[in-house]
Amino acid sequence: MMPFDIHKLIESREGENYALHSNYINPQFAKVLKTIGFDKVYTKAKGPYLYDKDGNEYLDFLSGYGVFAIGRNHPKIKLALTEFIDKDRANLVQMEAPLLSGLLAEALIKRVNQDGIDTVFFTNSGTESNECAIKFARGATGRKRILYLHHAFHGLSTGSLALNGNTEFREGFGDLLPGCEMIRQNDLNQLEDELKKKDVAAFIYEPIQGKGVYIPHDDTLPQAQKLCQKYGTLAIADEIQTGLGRTGKWFGFEHWNLNPDIITVSKSLSGGMVPVGATLTRRSIYNKVFSRMDRCVVHSSTFGQNDLAMVCGLATLSIIEEEGLVEKARMRGEEIVEGLKKLDAKHEWIKEIRGRGLMIGIEFGKPTSLKKKIQWNMVHQINSGLFGELIVMPLLAKHRILTQVSGHEQDVVKILPPLVIEPDHVGRFVTALDSVLEECGQITGPMWEMGKNLVKHALADRKAATA
């Protein structure tokens, strides 16, 4: 048997990506990627760039759904991991108190800088962090109900899925976690009606919602926090996408000067290298869960405190601070919005631009001119989620900029670039979007050919599913 050689293995099998996924992983997703022209074979990445097998360069304005805040393959992360691996440290002994998880917990508490938030539980992902938050809230309060917002997305494992305001993710999975109820965005009266029953363990919110990039009214979250405090309900801030500089502040809740009881983080904490998540809370809450010596492992995660993840977390926090990425996100975000507002005045397809820092949603709406209104209606009669795809497809195919729609059947394109982008990247994106929106006004052309191809495959797929 030949010795294992990862370099030779990759070189010999490069390009088989979609065949392998079709055969062994997720054939439906592979089919979608091929249908929309996203079936690229990326072989290299650096900072805000991706490179395909032919050496073409792409600007990454998706950043792994927010994972690559510090850019891809950051040299300081690579160096930290290499140096650590060479130390041959004892990892995941389990019956010990690891140094690195203690150091990362200390560093996170320092950055969150919130009164009373002083304890950390480490996980492997965002959804696991939210599962932990659900258990902590129920265990600490003795209550079972959890309230969440319309359009919410908190993960896809069973408990987190029960807090999901998007029915397309819940369909087909039967009854989920009982006691979870949805509250309309900005409806404080409905929230109080539920809280006053005094059986709600927690109210969970994303400071800015990932699905649609919806931002609450200025008074909603501060008033919601006061109501939670009044009725003994814990407030959980889901900072998995908004945290660690994404919105131009270390944490999204800082935009409203909030003081949540539990904070969940993940995604960018990994440095894009090793999965990691964390649930930050108050010692008083933690002690009600881990209440006795025989309950010291009543909640646990096998790989939660693994050293490689802790190294990535520590290095990432250091990089964000050293490179001033929080402030950089704020500045680049303002530049993008300024550029988009100029397009808004020029293209009647644009309905609204919203976001904070480098988490921005561009919502499209029905134009007023007759010709474009007919085009809009035609697209939406075919598929209510098609227009956004007709934007992101040419952005990739023609301009080599990777973006994606914000959610199922939404006319919203979301951009989540790495926090390391520069002004020339901003200009490139705005110019490319301008060009794509110009093409929208034409009945024929590459954009509409892509749309026809997408619809053709969707109809064929639907027919095959019902046959």
List keywords for this structure.
Aspartate Aminotransferase, domain 2, globular, four-stranded mixed sheet, seven-stranded mixed sheet, 44% helix, 2 domains, alpha/beta, 467 residues, 18 helices, Aspartate Aminotransferase, domain 1
CATH class of the largest domain: Alpha Beta
Largest sheet: 7 strands, mixed
What is the typical, i.e. mean, pLDDT? 94
Find the count of extended strands (DSSP E, 2+ residues): 15
Distance between the termini: 47 Å
User: How many distinct folded domains?
Assistant: 2
CATH superfamily of the largest domain: Type I PLP-dependent aspartate aminotransferase-like (Major domain)
Low-confidence stretches: none
- Give me the side-by-side strand order of the main sheet: 4-10-9-8-7-5-6
Describe it.
The protein contains 18 helices and 15 strands. The chain has 467 residues and is α/β, with parallel strands linked by helices. It has two domains: 36-70 and 325-466, Aspartate Aminotransferase, domain 1 (Alpha-Beta Complex); 77-322, Type I PLP-dependent aspartate aminotransferase-like (Major domain) (Aspartate Aminotransferase, domain 2), CATH 3.40.640. Strands 4-10-9-8-7-5-6 form a seven-stranded mixed β-sheet, sandwiched between helices. A four-stranded mixed β-sheet has the order 1-2-3-13. A four-stranded antiparallel β-sheet has the order 11-12-15-14, with helices on one face. A hairpin with a 4-residue loop joins strand 2 (49-52) and strand 3. The longest helix is centred in the last third of the chain and has 22 residues, at 325-346. The mean pLDDT is 94.
